[in-house]
Amino acid sequence: MSIAENVAQVRANIAAAAREAGRRPEEITLVGASKMNDAYRCREAIAAGIDALGENRVQEMTAKLQENAYDGAPLHFIGHLQRNKVKQVVGRAALIQSVGSLELLEEIDKAAGKLDLVQDILLEVNIGQEEAKSGFAPADLFSGAEAALDKEHVRVLGLMTIPPADASREENLHYFDKVRALFLDMNEKMFHNGLQVLSMGMSGDYEDAVRAGATMVRVGTAIFGSRHYT
Q1: DSSP secondary structure string, 35-69?
Q2: What is the pTM of this model?
Q3: Higher pLDDT residue, 229 or 51?
Q4: Rounded to whole angstroms, how far apart are CA atoms 119 and 63?
Q5: Domains in the chain, start-ordered, CATH in brackets?
Q6: What is d(CA 64, CA 69) in angstroms, rounded to the nearest whole number?
Q7: What is the CA angle 12-14-15, rounded to 5?
Q8: Phi and psi, residue 154, nearest 5°
């Protein structure tokens, strides 16, 4: 199937899942995870009506920016961001979804300040509390949000999470429910219900994520096909 056909199928699946949950399909933002796909294929996805494109790697993002790969759609950074590469992403990505430490938050605020702009971000929740994965532990999320609220050049739009890769579907659903509960609690107590983005779900579980309350899904393989790693 073509990228356009894949996007249409994913949209249909999102719509069905949203209706099952009593939601409107228009509430869900579809981000194409375009890692390892060239500028031409990114433009194909944009032409097919993707809402945004998400990149995992700074070097790849920078190269594709030079090729105008993202013209016509917002660019999100969705991968692990090293502090020494923050300057290459701030001001270029409309949204940084993977802010999971106080140190990274500080670096983003500093870089955005130098550019005299406000960088939109999501706070990443390490919901499985995996040692090898970045993100705020659930117990540390509120302190992370407090730190973000103190920053002049950072604006929190919501939360993002990636459940453990080896989780069963039942475990995944539990993780999604936990993050949504954190989102609702933090939104009410700290952001006066101003948060709008709950980014959960990828190619294998985006429909369940929509049923669980995600407002944004990050879909790669189901749109672009399998990645071939070397």
Answers
A1: TT--HHHHHHHHHTT-SEEEES-HHHHHHHHHTTT
A2: 0.96
A3: 51
A4: 21
A5: 3-224 (3.20.20.10)
A6: 5
A7: 65
A8: -135, 140
